Amino acid sequence: MKLSIERATLLKAVAQAQSVVERRNTIPILANVLIEAEGSTVSFRATDLDIEVVDKAAAMVERAGATTVSAVMLHEIVRKLPDGALVSLTDDQRTGRLTVEAGRSTFALATLPREDFPVMASSEYQSNFSAKAGDLRRLFEKSKFAISTEETRYYLNGVYMHVAEGEDGRVLRCVATDGHRLARIDTPLPEAAVGMPGVIVPRKTVNELRKLLDDDEADIAISVSETKVRFATPEIALTSKVIDGTFPDYTRVIPVGNTKRLEVDASDFAKAVDRVATVSSERSRAVKLILEEDKLTLSVNAPDSGTAEEELVVAYGDERLEIGFNAKYLLEIASQIDRENAVFMFNSSGEPALVREGSDASAVYVVMPMRV
To answer: Domain named DNA polymerase III beta sliding clamp central: which ranges (predicted)?
Structure first.
């Protein structure tokens, strides 16, 4: 194999590959990226056996072939090469080395046989449809903060993507929860997605997916089966196993009887929470919200370190209410709100609060209260 490729193109492809491979693994080949050159394209394939990413790029291929080399090592080398460099990759199977040359720099990297590289088994996908990258990014970016990190409840370690009934008909919905907070995000349902099975997309896949969704107007081809999900652009394909488990009935924890309505500037609210939380103990980070007519008082009382209080002018016309929340959870939800105002719906100090972005019902957040 012998090819030449622009440094920027190579860096983008190798960066995606090296982020998928596991740094520590017992199977050496899994630390490698499979490079396959043919015609005028070269593909870079990496896997951790749960996720597989394939990135295709244009290259000047002198001699077709394939080899595998350390993904992290190749990424580090390419990252340190000068901008605009033309990089040549030459595989010598006799020496078991891949030579990387750019300008006056030459590197010879150890390779492993391409035959040893595991390729994820292809799957029969039950549902194939496409969606705009901007819509997909909104679904996953706004929900992923609520993914659970508790390994015992493995079925909460991802985002549940499924078809659901929204206020104006059927929608493509993403939900994540860790039992303390919940995010539910909707987007109009693509026609071909009607029969899609609901799947739990793992946290690592959600993080890798972000790199495919740079261009809001790009069409992303999505394929879904009971065991796998695939997201693809013309250049990159990301295939992942889904979490084998049943996502809980999240609709039961979304309150429907909350009538006490607080409307507040989302940015002012987030800054005020952040300020008063400075004195709270890191373990609980509890912030008390005291609601009175058109006034919200945020207070923290930390016996070890001190107290803090801040008032905000808000729109609120119900009876006085005192309720406590984890400051981190409030900040995470406030940071998701794109619109100017956040709307909180309360019932009592012991029941969860519902949060929306202004009048937009397509993004709903739930946060459980704390005793303060």
So the answer is: 135-249
DSSP state of 280: S
- Nearest CA to 167 out of 354, 360, 367, 355 is that of 360
User: Count of CB atoms within 10 A of residue 215's CB?
Assistant: 13
Alpha helix (H) residue ranges in the chain: 7-20, 71-80, 133-143, 203-209, 266-276, 327-336
* Buried residues in 257-296 as b, exposed as e (16+ CB within 10 A): ebebebebbbebbbebbeebbeebeeebbbbbbebeeeeb
Distance CA 236, CA 360 (A): 33
Quick check: 367 and 181 in contact, CB under 8 A?
yes
Residue 222's closest CA among 204, 196, 241?
196
C-beta of residue 205 within 8 angstroms of C-beta of residue 51:
yes
15: helix, strand or coil: helix
Predicted confidence (pLDDT) per residue in 253-308, tens digit: 999 999 999 999 999 999 999 999 999 877 668 999 999 999 999 999 988 889 99
pTM (global) more than 0.70: yes
327 DSSP 8-state letter: H
